[in-house]
Amino acid sequence: MDLTDFDSARFLRDYWQKKPLLIRNPWAEWRNPLEPDELAGLACEADVEARLILRRRDGWMLERGPLEESRFAKLGKAPWTLLVQAVDHHVPDVAALIDPFRFVPNWRIDDVMVSYAVDGGGVGPHFDQYDVFLVQGLGKRRWRIGGPCDADTPLLPHDDLRLLADFEAVEEWVLEPGDILYVPPGVAHDGIAVGDDCMTYSIGFRAPSRSELIAHFCDDVLARLAEDDRYGDPDLAPQDNPGEISSAALARLQGMISDALLDRDAFARWFGGYTTTRKYPDVDWAPDEPVEGEEMRRELAKGEGLVRNPASRFSFVRQGDGTTLLFVDGESFPCAGAMAALAEQLCGSGRIVIDQDLLGSDEAMALLVTLFNEGSLAFDPDD
Known about the structure:
The protein has 383 residues and is an alpha+beta fold. It has helices at residues 8-14, 36-43, 92-95, 210-224, 247-261, 264-276, 293-301, 338-348, 362-373; strands at residues 21-23, 50-56, 59-64, 80-84, 109-117, 132-148, 171-175, 180-183, 187-205, 306-308, 314-318, 324-328, 331-335, 351-352, 377-379. Strands 1, 2, 3, 4, 5, 6, 7, 8 and 9 form a nine-stranded antiparallel sheet that branches. Strands 14-10-15 form a three-stranded antiparallel sheet. Strands 11-12-13 form a three-stranded antiparallel sheet.
């Protein structure tokens, strides 16, 4: 599915991380990619993250999946919402919803959460720490937009939900199938289903916090430091007061830290692996039948295409020496020459057709076999 009359450069300049934007049905042809019963089926599976939110007279209640199939028949008349995370990992048509938004770099994309709500259902007034495009799939939803929020914004006491204690709408829209609402980080919003069979697709983006980056990168730095990498002062001279920590010592000590933390190449290698780690790394996507190099070569020679697993994350970093580091699902693969071009193709194309000149490359076949057998790549089912 494609967007029509949508200026991505203007959007990034005027709206991205600045202010909300309502986009009335911009699709060339909108088609809801998932039926409500299919969403409910996913919520019953053990390896799928699902939540059921009910609004009752005494407050909000949250149940975590997997849900029993019989649970949906016992919900009663109280408004409820079903939320299923990372549906794009399981449904190719839902994964295709991300493609029109790839003017934002791949490493920023998180997943597609899908919600189903009955009349009056919602998750309450809240704010998120990330950007989100809310695509209305079925039915109608009334969105109310509030003001900016931060860590000091008062919340209602609740063990599972971060609901705003005070919410005042400044804008309000009713979205119909195909309409899109963009909400930047930190902006209060509240969506309520208008009628039954309300489905919304939330395309969310990742925004690592400073504390998260520092903590995880420091863990990586520490793991690489040798035990004998210690402070030294071979030019030590007598000082007037032995109790003083001299400015020279402080500079040398701080330099030991900054030299390790300000290594750009080391940070790039760490971040590439960190940001491409799968959202659910314990889920096994390996194929039932692994392939070997010659089989891969034969299939590609027939014109067979490859596609990325929607649950996999691909990115690359260009290095100063002309090589490219390919990152796939947390693993790194150094690539040079024609292999660097292949790495960029794997990251940038939805369907990958391998250049016939690469069929004779054992290095290229080895990389593709590794990614195939890990479940990161698959042969295009449409071929």
